[in-house]
């Protein structure tokens, strides 16, 4: 008797790339007026690094949440060729959770859930994405743990989507849904969140191998 093949997980990989990046544009920054996802890092836009790792994780659907207007068009261009669908967050200033909601509202029906990654975390590796997806299969929620810190990428089962849509605006994302989430150990050096020119310089050094995590 031939053993039945395991069902293919029907999940989405979501890139949240609608942030304004106000701290990246502090006085004296060379990136004033440039949306944070488009800030150059190691020869490509910042958002492209996270987008590539997410794309190579082979999810059924790839979706990027982008800002409205010309900034959103520019982010789309930066992700060209990676197979993403797009959703616009019309009010990214309302906080990170508004981008989670825009994603969930745009995802096609019938999915098991989604992995959510941040466009300003360029060091997250494909290996980390694979480890997260392994933990996600039996879990309603799972998130990466970098040493003592839990942070994205994270997995949410579709059963949690209605609760996510009901949460109030917040910059902390769907933290209220992550109590008891599976914790996936990840290399602490991948945690870097590029919010400032200083963090951008650190990311460039790490990517070039001139700085050790």
TrEMBL record:
Q: Which organism is it from?
A: Deinococcus piscis
Q: PANTHER family, per this entry? A: MOLYBDENUM COFACTOR CYTIDYLYLTRANSFERASE (PTHR43777:SF1)
Q: What is this protein called?
A: MobA-like NTP transferase domain-containing protein
Domain MobA-like NTP transferase: from-to ranges: 13-179
Q: Which InterPro entries match?
A: MobA-like_NTP_Trfase, Nucleotide-diphossugar_trans
């Amino acid at each position: 008797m031939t053993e039945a093949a395991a069902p293919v997980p029907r999940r989405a990989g979501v890139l949240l790339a609608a942030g304004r990046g106000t701290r990246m544009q502090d006085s004296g920054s060379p990136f004033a007026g440039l949306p944070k996802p488009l800030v150059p890092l190691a020869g490509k836009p910042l958002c492209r690094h996270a987008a590539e790792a997410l794309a190579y994780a082979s999810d059924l659907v790839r979706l990027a949440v982008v800002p409205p207007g010309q900034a959103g068009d520019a982010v789309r261009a930066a992700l060209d060729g990676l197979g993403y669908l797009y959703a616009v967050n019309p009010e990214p200033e309302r906080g990170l959770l508004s981008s989670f909601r825009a994603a969930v509202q745009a995802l096609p029906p019938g999915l098991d859930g989604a992995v959510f990654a941040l466009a300003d975390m360029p060091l997250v590796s494909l290996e980390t994405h694979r480890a997260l997806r392994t933990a996600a299969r039996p879990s309603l929620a799972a998130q990466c743990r970098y040493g003592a810190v839990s942070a994205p990428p994270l997995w949410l089962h579709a059963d949690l989507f209605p609760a996510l849509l009901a949460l109030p605006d917040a910059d902390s994302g769907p933290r209220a849904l992550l109590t008891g989430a599976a914790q996936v150990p990840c290399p602490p050096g991948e945690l870097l969140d590029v919010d400032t020119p200083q963090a951008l310089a650190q990311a460039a050094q790490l990517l070039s191998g001139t700085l050790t995590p």
